[in-house]
Amino acid sequence: MNPHLWVTLSGHGFGHLAQTAPILNRLREDLPGLRLTLQSALPATVLRQRIMGTFEHVPESVDVGMLMADALDVQIPQSLAAYRQFHAEWARRLARQEALLDRFRPDLLLANVPYLPLAAAANVAIPAVALCSLHWADIVPAYFPATPELADWRWRMLESYRQAAVFLRPAPSMPMPDLSNTRAIGPIALRGRRRRAEINQRLGLSGDETVVLVALGGIDNPLPVADWSILPGVRWLAPGTGHSERGNALDWSRVADLPFIELLESCDVILTKPGYGSFTEAACAGKPVLYVERNDWPEQSYLVDWLSEYGRCLCIEREALKTGDLAGPLDTLLNQPSKPPPRLTGLDAAVECLLAYLSGRSATSR
Known about the structure:
Largest sheet: 7 strands, parallel
Oligomer: single chain
Order of helices and strands: EHEHEHHEHEHHEEHEEHEHEHEHHH
Low-confidence stretches: none
Number of strands: 12
Structural class: alpha/beta
């Protein structure tokens, strides 16, 4: 019988999907008959952009994450209210998840990185693996540390994460000192084809321009790129924001059918925020990165330190997103020396671990 993998994905941006999709695609190569179920609030159209083959989609949220005002700013009061409601309904939500898993009896649950499904899997005797560069028990305290319920919430989060047989930490990762079941592995990133010649043709480019892909992640944050300062030889490509070709802006709709990873592989520079997927994919593709500071996000320093070691990057102020006054930072960034791209050893390690559990050889993955 073909093994069945149940995957629970946080809907907080696309970073959790970016970490998980390459693993699922590689698993499909090794186990062509793998049955795959994805439980996530992320739209199926977004999941299919990165995950190959067929899968069943359970379109529901299994965690809170952090609610965002835009790609950069957390909605702190709204997030606090959401956590209060989530934990007030813990018993009901846990029973619902247990019933779902008990009904389908998957061979393995993979969580990136909701915690409730890990507790549910343990209660119905389904093995589980967690995978992420962060966990919510380390993120939540940064935003409402004085909340009376925080200690209880964090205890439940950590106890749930401890139910995983192993918690894989792909580089770059937060340290997670409160968990004893973690295993550090190398980076994970999706790779795509370079299609610059085709993109030049579609967009009417000569090929001499510096094309900057403006991508602040999976949470909408429209930027006024059509009104930015004119920089000779520089063009801004901002997928998903509907920009007309005015100023230095390119009409993204002419390439919107291409996978995002192929746009990234085909551009010259990435303008983004600190995030796992954008940073690792840019480093592996050898693309220099302009990033907007996100100082309240606890993961930021770990991501920036890693990218500084393995890639080219430069921090810009948020004010620059209003004006597009980026000539100086772009010049500085492009004059940084290139570095060898990191090896994607985390992908092999994660796949080996999951294959061991799916084939009943879990002892070999420890």
